[in-house]
Amino acid sequence: MKKRDICKFIAAGLLTAFLGGAAHAEDALARVKAAGVLKVGTETEFAPFDFIDAGEHVGLNVDLFAEIGKEMGVKIEWVALPWDGVLPGLEAGKFDVVAGPATITKARMERYRFLPPIAEASVALLKRKGDTSINKPEDIAGKAVGGGKATAQLAQLEAYSATLPTKVTTKEYVGYNSAYADLAAGRIVAVANSLPNIAFVAKQRPDTFALVLPPFGAKSYFGFIGRKDADYAALDDAIGAAILKIKKDGRMAKIQEKWFATTFDTPDVVPTPNF
């Protein structure tokens, strides 16, 4: 190879390396850093994680992402929409990550990347305060219990019902507020939902509702959701690292205590789901 050809070869190599570096620099994390904004998709009808109070978007997710934004040096921009549009919105690139959060399941892990869990999602029961006929989960045998339509929690309730001497009569609700209203009116004896959600409801209405413990069914966790493609790997890593730092220094426990009136011991890595 002549000297001039060698120079061309070296120049081409340098150009390839430069372009490769430029492509890496333009991944999702680089774009978020350059814009100074992390766009977060969620719904606002999932108390205590995300809900509207006196016209203001509040909840555990709002507090937690405020801390994540501080760690990453970016502002948080919320994009709120109905839950059935949240995951399609993530895939369409309308925002960078989903706050949700969602129960970590095998089917969801095949499609999305979950970040380190932020709370336990195991299913428990909410009953009317003073109902002495239900003191433990198995006491719902043969009775009417409500659950969210097409939810992992309803599937857990139905699986648990099959283990009881007399099956539960399940009533499906599009929104949990309707289920809680039926429970308060005595049309059902309990509502099955994730422990953090019903713990919040019991805390808000202590004269009406009470928890039935322990939770039943397979232990599960809530996690935020990111995209699986390589372009988002560094961004998901950065958000995950921020979550773990917030957990380690005690900020997450304080936020959990604020919204759940209790704290949850969560794993640092996403566990293999039980269902």
TrEMBL record:
Residues 1-25 form the signal peptide. The keyword Signal applies. It comes from the Bacteria. It holds the Pfam family SBP_bac_3. SUPFAM superfamilies: Periplasmic binding protein-like II. Residues 37-263 form the Solute-binding protein family 3/N-terminal domain. Keywords: Signal. This is Transporter substrate-binding domain-containing protein. It comes from Methyloraptor flagellatus.
